[in-house]
């Protein structure tokens, strides 16, 4: 299975940087030169500055129109770079990582997603985006809502990460972001690492692609881990990975179409009976009734790790909150704008124009006297 992780904007490139650290193929794209330089693990030749002519390499300050234009202008450079990375071996999935609330990621990601879909129709394009914190205010929320709408028509799945949910309490925000990014990469990297591992009952690239090819609906990744000696019921641990606190966003998992469960741990704990009990329960619970599974017994392992993927989700409070807030704001903004316009018309009605109050015909039609000439004449007259 071949995945290419493409980070767009600051949040996205920071996430791609962590994927690079764990040996994934990555590319980092940003409008800010400083943010690109700040990355630690993405190789320098895999960093692309876009929109320099528009921004001077200084970012787009949360304006997605500029982010979109930057990506459009430099799309040929970006696509050539991607082509040279890919070479002759197909990519199964492009993962585009970004923050929904900024300008570069929100504006640029849909443009790149569309170009990738066109150029590589057999590969999947999966968006992995962080949803803005509530306290960031209205603009990031609007950027997020509009970008969700656009990507839902282009991407195969949208793995939305709710920063509000994963933030926890106490941390300052920079630490919280670091921790969230780590969680994102840890889970997705463990899942990808388990695909195409030889063995019976393992997952292959086509299983993962089947689950993620879900017409631009939402997907989420769940996770549960425990020391093998402490696992009393494996079935319970698997079910826990699907529970709300384990997921990237608040979602009703019953609305999911497909699921995928990968269980990794010491062979004596991975009992088929327990696993099937959990899978039966979950298959009945989700709407689409299809769950793929992979078992990975590993005698060297001391922990049991469960990674789950649910896709085809449409019922998510995290997403709904953003869409409703953005729509209410847009509607009340449009109303306020109309009110301002009509109030302005009312206030200024009945005023005359200049022609109504000044008499016509006072306009001097001749040529103006030459001031130098007049001065010379006056001086001559004085001297005489
Ligand atoms: N999870 C996570 N979210 C982040 C991180 N950095 C920023 N965000 C979120 O992403 C949004 C901002 O996106 P950025 O990536 O900073 O913006 P950008 O795409 O670089 O665009 P501009 O800075 O406007 O050019 C905000 O809503 C933040 O909540 C991060 O490291 N991790
Ligand atoms: Mg930025």
Average pLDDT, rounded to a whole number, is: 94
In total, the number of strands is 10
CA-based gyration radius: 30 Å
Order of helices and strands: EHEHEHHHEHEHEHHHEHEHEEHHH
Family: Belongs to the CetZ family.
Subcellular location: Cytoplasm
Binding site for GTP: 10-14, 103-105, 136, 163, 181
Function: Involved in cell shape control.
Give your account of this protein's structure.
This protein is of the alpha/beta class and 384 residues long. The protein has a domain at 1-155: 3-Layer(aba) Sandwich (Rossmann fold), CATH 3.40.50. Helices cover 47% and strands 19% of the residues. It is built from 15 helices and ten strands. It has helices spanning 9-21, 33-38, 52-55, 64-73, 75-86, 104-119, 138-152, 163-166, 173-193, 205-212, 234-241, 272-285, 317-348, 354-357, 371-383; strands at residues 3-8, 25-30, 47-49, 93-99, 124-131, 157-162, 217-227, 258-265, 290-297, 303-313. The chain has a ten-stranded mixed sheet, with helices on both faces. Strand 1, helix 1 (9-21) and strand 2 (25-30) form a beta-alpha-beta unit. Helix 1 (9-21) packs across helix 9 (173-193) and helix 11 runs parallel beside helix 12. The longest helix has 32 residues, at 317-348. It is elongated, with a radius of gyration of 30 Å. The mean pLDDT is 94. The site of guanosine-5'-triphosphate has 27 residues, from helix 1, helix 6 and helix 9.
């Amino acid at each position: 299975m071949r995945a290419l992780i493409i980070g767009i904007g600051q949040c996205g490139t920071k996430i791609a940087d962590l994927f690079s650290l764990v040996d994934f193929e990555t590319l980092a794209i940003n409008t800010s030169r400083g943010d690109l330089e700040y990355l630690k693990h993405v190789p320098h030749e895999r960093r692309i500055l876009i929109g320099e002519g528009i921004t001077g390499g200084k970012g787009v300050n949360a304006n997605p129109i500029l982010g979109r234009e930057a990506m459009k202008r430099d799309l040929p450079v970006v696509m050539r770079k991607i082509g040279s990375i890919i070479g002759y071996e197909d990519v199964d999935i492009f993962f585009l990582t970004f923050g929904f609330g900024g300008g570069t990621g929100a504006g640029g990601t849909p443009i790149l997603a569309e170009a990738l879909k066109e150029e590589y129709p057999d590969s999947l394009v999966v968006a992995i985006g962080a949803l803005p914190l509530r306290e960031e205010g209205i603009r990031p929320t609007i950027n997020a809502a509009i970008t969700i709408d656009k990507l839902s028509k282009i991407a195969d799945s949208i793995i939305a990460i709710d920063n509000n949910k994963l933030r926890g309490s106490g941390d300052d925000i920079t630490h919280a972001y670091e921790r969230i990014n780590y969680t994102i990469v840890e889970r997705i990297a463990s899942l990808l690492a388990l695909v195409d591992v030889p063995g019976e009952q393992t997952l292959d690239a086509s299983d993962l692609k089947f689950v993620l090819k879900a017409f631009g609906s939402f997907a989420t990744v769940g996770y549960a881990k425990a020391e093998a000696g402490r696992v009393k019921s494996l079935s319970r641990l698997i079910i826990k990975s699907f529970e709300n606190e384990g997921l990237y966003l608040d979602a009703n998992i019953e609305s999911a179409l497909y699921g995928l469960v990968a269980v990794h741990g010491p062979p004596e704990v991975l009992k088929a009976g327990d696993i099937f009990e959990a899978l039966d329960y979950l298959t009945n619970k989700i709407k689409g009734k299809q769950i793929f599974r992979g078992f990975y017994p590993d005698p060297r392992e001391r922990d049991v790790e469960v990674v789950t993927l649910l896709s085809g989700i449409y019922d998510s409070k995290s997403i709904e909150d953003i869409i409703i807030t953005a729509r209410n704001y847009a509607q009340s903004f449009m109303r306020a704008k109309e009110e301002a316009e009509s109030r302005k018309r009312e206030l200024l009605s009945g005023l005359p124009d200049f022609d109504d109050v000044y008499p016509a015909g006072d306009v001097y039609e001749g040529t103006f006297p030459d001031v130098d000439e007049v001065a010379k004449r006056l001086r001559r007259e004085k001297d005489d």
